[in-house]
């Protein structure tokens, strides 16, 4: 067993270019070349199950989950940067952070069109979200008896 190394800004980054699509019925993975490198924070699923990857080329790559073929490449962010951009999908909208510009972009998953972009007060390092009005059932709450 090798000792773990502490993170360093000079450390060599991994630059994967292939993603694995797994057919859960056949229990078989398939490697698909994205055509660009990506980060672990830049993979998501679309509302129809399509595989999405934000590449270091600044585009969202849409891959058909059944064929493994590229369906579309949609520009989303500028040149790759540190901290890395993040992809987050909620419903039919893909949100892409652009930390170097303190920007957040909303992209329509089905068309690849940019819905809106805006500047944030601070740079982002992670993205997440919830569905409006969603309530958890049978979960104890400190605010309910």
How is this structure best described in words?
There is one protein chain. By secondary structure, the protein is mainly beta. It has one domain (18-119): Thrombin, subunit H (Beta Barrel). The chain has strands at residues 18-23, 28-33, 38-45, 51-55, 59-63, 70-75, 87-90, 93-98, 103-108, 114-119. The strands form three sheets. Strands 3-4-5-6 form a four-stranded antiparallel beta sheet, with no helix packed on it. A four-stranded antiparallel beta sheet has the order 7-8-9-10, with no helix packed on it. A hairpin with a 5-residue loop joins strand 3 and strand 4. It starts with 17 loop residues before the first strand and ends in a 26-residue tail after the last strand. The model is unreliable at 1-5 (pLDDT under 50). Residues 1-27 are annotated as: Disordered.
């Amino acid at each position: 067993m090798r000792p773990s190394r502490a993170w360093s800004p000079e450390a060599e980054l991994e630059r994967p270019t292939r993603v694995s699509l797994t057919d859960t019925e056949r229990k078989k993975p398939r490697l698909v070349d994205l055509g660009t490198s990506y980060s672990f924070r830049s993979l998501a699923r679309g509302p129809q199950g399509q595989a999405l990857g934000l590449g270091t080329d600044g585009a969202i790559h849409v891959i058909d989950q059944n064929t493994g073929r590229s369906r579309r490449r949609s520009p989303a962010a500028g040149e790759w940067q540190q901290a890395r951009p993040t992809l987050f999908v909620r419903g039919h909208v893909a949100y892409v952070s652009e930390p170097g510009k303190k920007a957040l972009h909303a992209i329509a998953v089905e068309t690849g069109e940019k819905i809106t972009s805006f500047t944030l007060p601070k740079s982002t390092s992670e993205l997440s979200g919830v569905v409006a009005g969603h309530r958890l059932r049978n979960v104890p709450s400190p605010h309910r008896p």
